[in-house]
# Entry
Amino acid sequence: MPDAVQRSSPVTGPDPETPLGFTPGPETVHDFRHALGRFATGVTVVTAQGAKGPVGITANSFASVSLDPPLVLWSPARASRRFEVFAGAAGYAIHILDAEQADLCRHFVRHGHAPEGMVWGKGEGGLPVLPDCLARFDCRAEAAHDGGDHLILVGRVTRAVVREGAPLVFLGGHYGSFRA
# Structure
């Protein structure tokens, strides 16, 4: 009888507790994405005014950059159908989603328009904004940097809105929440 073949996952090897190293590249894109998915992130929806009206996109590539001046960043994928709207926007609003807003998140993964029945609010400078998020940062476009298959957009925060609540969290392809 032949010896049993031990199967391994792309990132761990025969023993799931033993990490498997790899060099990121075209042959290991899936492994690299899986490794990046080990980092839990918050979930945002970024909105801007497009030529045909308000547009939104889900992003977990949000980070603070500076307190003085108040700068944040996020990175839209160049392959997104909504990329040109955000790459060319003079301003945008970044919304940190509440744990109860997973459906809103999923909607903006697929669609740029608001869900049926949702009314856009108005933020700083007339930016289209979403209701009931944990935090919102109204931004003026400050800088754009090449980021490979993404564009790194730096925004200067002109207004911030915040409330208490549990955040929507993304880890390993799944949504959840965090409660302290």
